[in-house]
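From the thread on structure requests for the teaching lab: each student submitted one protein with a one-line request. Submission from student K.M.:

"Model 70-kilodalton heat shock protein from Phytophthora pseudosyringae, tokens only."
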Amino acid sequence: MRGADRATARLLLACERAKRALSVSTKAFIELDALYDDDNVKSTVARTRYEGFLCGDLLRRMMHPVEKVLRDAKVAIFTVDEVAVVGGLAYIPKVRKLLTGFFHGKTLSKPVRPARGKNRRKWRTRTTIEGDVRAAQGR
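Reply posted by the TA:
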């Protein structure tokens, strides 16, 4: 489809929709009429195929930064009390499964939208600062 920017954009959009659908369903359908040279595209993608063949290596590599952060922070896995997953990856069942396994069955928080994650950090920062101020004032 070289040189067919519009067709490529339509296909990418359809694939993105399918990826999102696979977060809540075991199958996703891709259907595009007259995609390129009047050819119609119809396909079904199973979540197992997406997680295994199409994205398996990428999903496994995703765990390397998690390991690195814990190692750099000198934090042992068993000392982690809460695992909060933020962003789009939080909705992918395989990602949640990998993280649950990595943290030895620890329950993950429900997915947090990025904006809410920022608000949560602000709240924690604010309560920490307020606590420091109160301690300095002798309260």
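TA comment: The domain at 55-139 is CATH 3.30.420 (Nucleotidyltransferase; domain 5). The mean pLDDT is 79.
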